[in-house]
Design goal:
Elements (H helix, E strand, L loop, with lengths): L3 H21 L6 H13 L4 H8 L3 H13 L3 E5 L7 E5 L1 H25 L2 H17 L7
Helix pairs in contact: 2-5, 3-4
Protein name: MarR family transcriptional regulator
GO molecular function, one term: DNA-binding transcription factor activity
Pfam family, one: MarR_2
C-alpha cells in the first residue's frame, strides 16, 4: 500500500542518488575513510572502538580503514601514557589538508549548480530544507 511517506521517501532517494554521485565523483577517499577523518576533525583524538561506534561499523572494518588511512600519512596512532593497551588515533596536518580538499571537490560543483540553476526563491526553499534533511539523520551534519 502506497503511503504519502513511502512515495516521498522513494522520490527523495531517487533525487538524492544522482546528486550524491556527482558530489563524490572525483573524491579519492571512500566515504568510510572520510567519515573517520571528519570524526577526528570534529571531535579530536579517538580510539578505534570510538571510531567504530561513531561510524556504526565493526571493529575489524575500522581497524582496516585506520591502517589504510595511516599508511597515507593522514592519521597517527599513539599509545596512551596511562594505559598502554589504549591507542589514540589523531588527525595529522596532512589529514586536515586532505579532508579540506576532499570536501571542496563536490562543493565547487554544487555551488555552481545552485547559483546557475536555481532561482532566488528556489535557493531559499533549498536552504529551508537543509535542517529537515539533517533532522532525518538525527541531526548529523551531512558531508
Amino acid at each position: 500500500m502506497d503511503t504519502i511517506e513511502g512515495t516521498l521517501a522513494q522520490s527523495l532517494r531517487e533525487s538524492l542518488r544522482p546528486l550524491w554521485r556527482q558530489l563524490n565523483a572525483h573524491k579519492t577517499l571512500s566515504t568510510g575513510k572520510l567519515d573517520v577523518l571528519v570524526h577526528l576533525a570534529e571531535h579530536g583524538r579517538a580510539t578505534s572502538a570510538e571510531l567504530a561506534t561513531a561510524a556504526k561499523i565493526s571493529p575489524q572494518a575500522i581497524a582496516t580503514a585506520v591502517r589504510e588511512i595511516e599508511s597515507l600519512g593522514l592519521i597517527t596512532r599513539t599509545p596512551d601514557d596511562r594505559d598502554r593497551r589504549r591507542v589514540w588515533i589523531e588527525l595529522t596536518d596532512a589529514g586536515r589538508q586532505r579532508l579540506a580538499h576532499e570536501r571542496s571537490i563536490g562543493n565547487a560543483w554544487l555551488e555552481r549548480a545552485i547559483a546557475e540553476q536555481l532561482t532566488d526563491d528556489e535557493r531559499q526553499l533549498l536552504g529551508a530544507a537543509v535542517p529537515l534533511l539533517r533532522k532525518l539523520t538525527g541531526g548529523a551534519a551531512v558531508e
